[in-house]
Amino acid sequence: MSKSITKSGIGIIYAGGTFGSYGKPLASLNADIFLPVLSQILQTHFATYPNHAHDPVDWRILDNDVIKDSSQLTPADFAHFYQLILQAIAQGIRQFVVLTGTDTLSYLAAFLAECFAGSHISIVVTGAMRPLLDSNVLTDYLIDAQSDATQNLFDACKLARHGEPGVRVCFSGEDWPAQTVQKIHSHDLMAFVGHHRAGYPANSYTSKITQAQHQLWLEDRLSQLPQVFDSLSHANIATLYLTPVDTHLLAARLDNLLSEKPDAIIILAFGAGNVPYAESIKNQLLQAKKQGCLVAVTTQCAYGGVSQAYEAGAWLAQLAQCEVLMTGRLTLPAIFARLLWLIGSYDTPARRRQRWAHCLKDTHTVA
After folding, report:
1. 256 Cβ partners below 8 Å, 6+ apart?
2. Which of 63, 309, 310, 363 has its CA at a distance of 20 to 30 angstroms from the CA of residue 84?
3. Which pTM does this prediction carry?
4. Secondary structure of the chain: what % helix, strand, coil (to 5)?
5. Exposure of 37 in the CB half-sphere (CA atoms within 13 A)
C-alpha cells in the first residue's frame, strides 16, 4: 500500500474500534474493506505534507489479523501487538501509529509503554470517538466531516514522524505519556486526559542508544517472546471494587477471587487507598502471598493516587508479611499494564515484586 519503508518511515497498525466502524449498530469493518479507504486518505495527506518534495514521508500499513472492538481485546491480543511491532522493528521501522478502540486504548498504550521501555522506539496510539466513515450514507463509503478520526490520525502521524522515543497517546489535539492516560468521558470528543510528568517507564526511553545496544535489546526481546505469549495467554488479573460492606463479606469476596488462582488482584480502595481492617481480610492477603498472587491497592478516585496518610490505608503498607503493592499515582490502566508485563516477563512472584518496587520508586508524584 506504499513505498518501501525506511528507518524514518511510519508503520501504521489498524486494530479496529470506532475509528473503522460503520453501519447501525456500529461494527468494525473488515480490513479488506476499510484499509483501502485508510490508505487513500494517507496517500492524499502525505502527498501534500510540508516539505514532502524534499523530505518525503515513507509509511506502510502493517499486516494485522487482530481487528476487533477494543472491549474484546485480551492479554493475548496485547502480546500479539507487541510481537507485531517487534517484528517490524527488526525490519527497520522505528516509528509507529496504532489505531485502536477507545474502550481499552489506555490499557493497550500503557502495556506498550512497559514493553518498549529502554528502547528508542516511537509509538503513538490514537483512535476516534466518531467513525471515520459516515454511517448515514449506506450506498458508499464517504468520510464523515464531523468525525474526529481524520484529525487524530494526522496528529498521530505528525507526532510519530517527529520520532521522539516513547509511547504516547494522541487524542483531540493533545498528547501525553501513555501510562498517564485515562478515559474520562464515554462519548465526548475530548474523551481522554493525561499529564506530562511521569516516571518509569516514560523516563527510561533514550534517543542516544547505539546500534549495537539496539540490536542486543531487540534480540533479547525476540528471544523472550515465547515466554511472554505463553504467560499472557492464560494471565488472570482480577479486580475488586470496594463498596461499603461488612468486613466478613469483603474477606469472602477475596476468598472467592483467590479460589480462581489469579496471578494478581487489583483492589480499588476508598479515598487514598483505604481498606477496612479485619483479621479475616489480613488472612486473605496472607493467603494471596502464599499462592503467589500479587495484590496491588489503588484508589477509586480519578486523581491523586494512594498514600499512607490514613490508618485505614497505612496498615496495608505496614503489614510487611503480606507484601501488598502500593501504586503511587499510577492510573488503573497503568497498574493493569505493568502487572501484565511483569507476569509475562518474570517467572516468579518474588522477581515480579522486586521489579514492581524498582519501577515504582522511579515514578514521580504528580498532582
Report:
1. none
2. 363
3. 0.92
4. 45, 15, 40
5. 22
